[in-house]
Write a structure and sequence with these properties.
By secondary structure, the chain is of the alpha/beta class. The protein has 10 helices and 20 strands. The protein folds into 2 domains: 4-136 and 311-345, Quinone Oxidoreductase, Chain A, domain 1 (Alpha-Beta Complex); 157-290, Rossmann fold (3-Layer(aba) Sandwich). The chain has helices spanning 40-48, 98-101, 143-161, 177-189, 201-209, 223-234, 248-257, 278-283, 298-306, 325-333, and strands at 4-10, 13-18, 28-37, 50-51, 54-55, 60-61, 65-73, 85-88, 91-92, 112-113, 126-130, 134-136, 169-173, 193-198, 214-217, 240-243, 263-266, 287-290, 316-321, 341-345. Strands 3, 7, 8, 11, 12, 19 and 20 form a 7-stranded mixed sheet that branches. A 6-stranded parallel sheet has the order 15-14-13-16-17-18, with helices on both faces. A 3-stranded antiparallel sheet has the order 2-1-6, with helices on one face. Strand 4 (50-51) and strand 5 form a beta hairpin. The longest helix is centred in the middle third of the chain and has 19 residues, at 143-161.
Length: 349
Amino acid sequence: MANIAAVLHGANDLRVESIPLPEIKENEVLLSMRSVGICGSDLKYWMYGKCGKFTLEKPMIMGHEGSGKVVKLGAGVKNLKIGDRVAIEPGVPCGECRLCKTGRYNLCQSIFFCATPPDDGNLCRFYKHSAEFCFRLPDHVTDDEGAMLEPLAVAVYSCRKGNVGLGTRLLICGAGPVGILTMLVAKQNGATTIVITDVDDTRLALAKSLGADHTIKVMTNDPSKLATEILDTIGDFPDVTIECSGTNFGFSTGIYANSPGGSLVMVGRVPGGEEFPLNLAFTREIDIRGLFRYANCYPTALDLVSKGLINVKSLITHRFTLQETLKAFETAASRDSKAVKVIIQCGKN
């Protein structure tokens, strides 16, 4: 029962080291971790020691896209049994504030969220978590697929925020894992025209192979020119733009390209520091919608995977062991590796 974890001590200082075995509370379970995915936010913490408004102030265990196997139950746990394999929804809210009680628990100001300072993540051998936020995996759903439910939940939430449905013309900025998963969810929702943009040929090719109607490689620094190319490609304004690139360029492109009266959903966190065409957004009555994580999306994400409606395994390009965590992060960050989703399998030596 020795425990090890991938611990970030500062920017570019990631170490695999021994940590204590967690002691569980009444409504928690102890999990033997199986698969953990690397997310863009993980890379930002590793490279810069911060992500958005969150800054690393003490050593932190990495990992928030995870699956595990139950090895110990708290006295009050009724929904799980020892041996169950589960997907881990990484956010555990207080359950008592107004936001929690109205269903918007992702905005709870007291939420615990894996690998978000000051909270530790689950990139370790043994990890404890609230049983309420562990979702049992059917036998035919793999550990890797369980870990992929986290980015898929973001995609489900982004389509809900944009009201993506039958007949929607959709622009997705960014063909990373969340962008491609958003495309797959949108197709399940009935979107009829989907165009996705990126700077990377490999990711655009993957998006095309998985069903994107149009892919556009970004070859300009002028978002208005890219918007014109998008309009020429699909023959009309997109009804909805979902910005997944986390760039100022993507935000501006969404404003220039989007239909008057449409919506622009901000999944990525833009760095800011430059002007945006906001007056154009206002005069077109474009509804700019923020998105923070997700709420009440894991059951839907699990249904989509377990029923074979979305193949999340198609995004997994690399796998590493827990001891190879640093190599896994280097691979995920390297453009040359052509990585899309990197998975760390914690149960393998």
